[in-house]
Amino acid sequence: MQGKVCVVTGASAGIGFITARELVRQGARVIGVGRSPERCEAAARRIREETGSRAIEYLIADLSSQADIRRLASEIRAKVPRLDVLVNNAGGIFLTRQTTVDGLELTFALNHLAYFLLTNLLLDHLKANAPARIVCVASAAHRGVRLEFDDLNGEKRYSPWRAYQRSKLANLLFVRELARRLDSSGVTVNALHPGYVKTEIFRADGIRGWILRRAAELFAITPERGAETSIYLAVSPDVEGVSGKYFDRKRPIETSSAARDDEAAKRLWHVSEELTSASGQSS
Ligand SMILES: NC(=O)c1ccc[n+]([C@@H]2O[C@H](COP(=O)([O-])OP(=O)(O)OC[C@H]3O[C@@H](n4cnc5c(N)ncnc54)[C@H](OP(=O)(O)O)[C@@H]3O)[C@@H](O)[C@H]2O)c1
Q1: Is the pTM of this model over 0.85?
Q2: CA-CA to 203 of 20 to 30 Å: which in 1, 65, 196, 240?
Q3: What is the pLDDT of residues 130-167, one digit of tens each?
Q4: Residue 191 — very low, low, confident or very high, per pLDDT cuts 50/70/90?
Q5: Pocket-forming residues, ligand 1, beta carbon under 6 Å
């Protein structure tokens, strides 16, 4: 990874932090993205201490805000002349329905639309530098749901887990359609399930939080192990030229049938374009 430039979103904690740290350890220059200056500064300090490298910096953006994503993409383009790897990782589960500054349901906006918009805004930078890679952290949680196109914003009913599941299905439909659009461009895009990982995603108040944390302590893997497939997809020569796949424990596996629905993938792309006013840079 010497000389390569990588962007990792949600790099202030959990799987994204380890992904950023290990890419730095392997010689890459890494731009981490997070929303809290304090947490990002602490993460940068830790990575410098733990790797002995200074090839890490953080840019601050709230990825639930489309204006912030646009500013972030401009800052990245201004900062680096080329981009080799984009890891879309930032995400969350929200116990109550919340809306973003753009008036969108937070889970859908952060977990899906941020991947969609940031990727599209950086696509020319990746294409100009092909071969380049896009890695999207999805989840096995995508199984058992379909997208409800008449209620993507969760206005009719909101369930935290259902909203999360649908956002992760959206990740896979996005990867499917993007891989089709990027065919022969030299830019690959793949998704992954990191495993059940002990991270801050399970933060919640009260008894619900206690149960979630206790279960994670008992059954979840470490963030180090959880980041292994993200890192593999970002760096390994084994997946050179491989695109449009979904990996678990570094192996390609089948997605749910809903995630293989080409019509839904195209429809989601068009809806996402409308919701973000993204110029479709890939045809
Ligand atoms: N943990 C699991 O078992 C598991 C399983 C399957 C899939 N995943 C996926 O793995 C990815 C990483 O999750 P994790 O488990 O590592 O969670 P985490 O420990 O909560 O880390 C999430 C990261 O995203 C950042 N983030 C959250 N909201 C943001 C926003 N609005 N703007 C910018 N950054 C934001 C967080 O920043 P702060 O430091 O400011 O909070 C943090 O850096 C997610 O896509 C998740 O869906 C996780």
Answers
A1: yes
A2: 65
A3: 999 999 999 999 999 999 999 999 999 999 999 999 99
A4: very high
A5: 10-16, 34-36, 39, 62-64, 89-92, 110, 137, 139, 193-194, 196-197, 199-201
Q: What is the pLDDT of residue 213?
A: 85
Question: What are the pLDDT digits (tens) for 31-89?
Answer: 999 999 999 999 999 999 999 999 999 999 999 999 999 999 999 999 999 999 999 99
Tokens standing for residue 73: 């993409």
- Which two tokens mark 157? 């009913």
Of ligand 1's listed atoms, the one at least distance from the Cα of 93 is: 47
Query: Does the residue 282 lie in any domain?
Result: no
Residues spanned by the domain of 66 = 5-276
3-state secondary structure of 58: strand
CA-CA distance, 233 to 190, in Å (whole number)? 7
Q: Confirm whether 248 is domain-assigned.
A: yes
Per the domain annotation, does 36 fall within a domain? Answer: yes
CA distance 196 to 193: 9
30, 141, 233, 4 alpha-carbon torsion, rounded to 10°:
-20
User: How many domains, in total, are found in the chain?
Assistant: 1
Q: Sort 68 into a burial class: Cβ within 10 Å, 0-12 / 13-18 / 19+.
A: middle
* Backbone torsion region of residue 98, taken as left when φ is above 0, otherwise alpha when ψ lies between -120 and 50, otherwise beta: beta
Instruction: Return the amino acid letter for 55.
Output: A
Q: List the CATH number of the domain containing 245.
A: 3.40.50.720
Q: Is 246 designated active site?
A: no
- Would you call 29 helix, strand, or coil by DSSP? strand
| Summary count for the chain: helices (H), strands (E) | 10, 8
Residue 116, in any domain of the structure: yes
